[in-house]
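Revision sheet: structure tokens.
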Amino acid sequence: MKKCFLVLVLVMQGIVNAQILTGTLTAHRFQEITLEGFNHFEPLELGTTQTDSLGNFSLDYPRDYEGMALLKSQDGNNLVLLLGGDALSVQGTHLTETDRLTFSESQNKAFFTYALGHGDRKNALNAWKHLDRLYRKSKNFTAQTNVRKAIAEEIYRLKKREINRINSLPKASYLRWFIPYRSFIQDMPVIIRTETERFPESITLFRTTDFNHPNWKTSGILQEFIEKHYFMLENSSGTGAEKQEKMNASSLHLIQNLESNQVLLNDVVEKLFFFLEERGLHIAAEFLALEVLNGAQCEIQENTANKLEKYRNLKVGGKAPDIQLSTTQKLSDFNQPILLVFGKSDCPHCKEGALELLKYYAGWKTKKNMEVVYISLDTDEKAYQEAYQNVPWPMFCDFKGWDSKAAKDYHIWGTPSYFLLDKELTILAHINSVAHANAWVTSRL
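Predicted:
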């Protein structure tokens, strides 16, 4: 009797802690339906079910989850929903036919009403802005003051209407918080191409953002918002040094804002560091790494710290670690400028890089007396021999993979990785591609 009572309590507790999403999607009959939420940078499966012969479904998800989610169908389509509050029911045909979907509760009604209207307003606003630029810049139209005035008034009206739509939402609602960030992400390409006057307000939005806000966790846009901001700064006006200063100021805001949330700080730093490295923004990556490593307010996890140490232990102008390449040869024995490469035979980007190296290698060697030293992180000797048997540059591998002493000394966490060294093993540059190496070697070595 006690056992049955305990089972009943557990079942009832599950019901209390669950929320129900129901719906009918007639074009998705007999399909698996999945509800996927977000946990900062990672997807979070909230529930899954199967539609019946009429497309009906019922799906349980955690009651305490509030935020954005994706309703995903077996045929690869998805629909963005806002979860939290009242039970939700979705009625319609296909997930992509959003104009034919209806919702049982107010949040998603408001969300889709706004989204559909926003698309029309955005298209109209872009058209009027195009006319505005044309009438202001073309000598054929500059005298048309009345037309220009009318265009300016319509642009103002559309902007005001957009603001009013957002302000009409409840102040504490998830949507009112979410929409400005989603809008920046969507508008970023236009801001870069034609609306550079919006750069200052976009920068201010980022640097006044509280990244500790709980809504970020379930927004699904945290990584995209951060990366789009840095992409915008990369494409902003000014010298390279001025762009780097802008990036450094934004990185400082992130670090200081998240100093009380060490777990999220580690995740953000790792994602941003990888993004900056991938785009070859080494000065910004170095600032981020040193600010975090040297900052007393940061408790960086070992795996993240190992990646960042590249810029503290291997900074430009510093001495690179010597490497025992074989029983008889060290890296320092070359006594000439070196492009040091770390790669793997099963790395697609390494193969592309090797083909690029073949184009430049002979010229570097004859004109600049520069050698390429390639260290493979392979563990399979046969794969290594097959991949590199015909390359013209020196190859070395101890078949220890990521546990190789050289990989650890150089803080290698991805391949290919490149370092440009002079004959004394002084680090000249952190290189992000073979083309970057060629530009550096051609103009500065």
